[in-house]
């Protein structure tokens, strides 16, 4: 079973993403901020980490940079954010994020992208 970590400070959004992906059989863990995400990544291996760009404390960019710097695990990174300007996408790519999706998003489109990434 593929394991996914959903990192977003908005609880309702985490619930929507979790419900959508769990229905397809993915194992989901949630973090409400970057610090909690890094703690969970230290404890477990994830196939995919879905990050929000803007969060209190560590941003999604900073979390991605730490994941890539430490290379503690081979994981795919997806930025799911309302920050969709060209410079935001470029900053995400420089941080090591391979996939990008803007908010608002369709749960069906997110599910299709996750399947493409993981299969």
Overview of the molecule:
This protein is of the alpha/beta class and 119 residues long. The protein has one domain (3-118): Response regulator (Rossmann fold, 3-Layer(aba) Sandwich), CATH 3.40.50.2300. 45% of the residues lie in helices and 20% in strands. It is built from 5 helices and 5 strands, in the order βαβαβαβαβα. It has helices at 11-22, 34-43, 60-70, 86-94, 107-118, and strands at 3-7, 27-31, 48-51, 76-81, 99-102. It has a 5-stranded parallel sheet, sandwiched between helices. β4 (76-81), α4 and β5 form a beta-alpha-beta unit. α1 (11-22) crosses α5 and α2 runs parallel beside α3. The radius of gyration is 13 Å and the shape is globular.
What keyword list fits this structure?
Rossmann fold; 5 helices; five-stranded parallel β-sheet; globular; 119 residues; alpha/beta
CATH class: Alpha Beta
Distance between the termini: 11 Å
Percent helix, as a range, is: 40-55%
CATH topology: Rossmann fold
Q: Which regions contain 5 or more consecutive residues with pLDDT less than 50?
A: none
How would you spell out the order of helices and strands? EHEHEHEHEH
Could you tell me the radius of gyration in angstroms?
13 Å
CATH architecture: 3-Layer(aba) Sandwich
Q: What best-fitting shape do the alpha-carbon axes yield?
A: globular
């Amino acid at each position: 079973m593929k394991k996914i970590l959903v990192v977003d400070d908005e609880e309702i959004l985490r619930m929507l993403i979790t419900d959508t992906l769990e229905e397809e059989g993915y194992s989901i863990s949630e973090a409400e901020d970057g610090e909690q995400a890094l703690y969970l990544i230290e404890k477990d291996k994830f196939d995919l980490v879905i990050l929000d760009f803007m969060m209190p404390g560590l941003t999604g960019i900073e979390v991605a940079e730490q994941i890539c710097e430490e290379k503690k695990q081979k994981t795919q990174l997806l930025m799911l954010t309302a920050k969709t300007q060209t410079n935001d996408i470029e900053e995400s790519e420089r941080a090591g994020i391979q996939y990008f999706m803007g908010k608002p998003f369709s749960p069906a489109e997110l599910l299709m992208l996750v399947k493409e990434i993981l299969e």
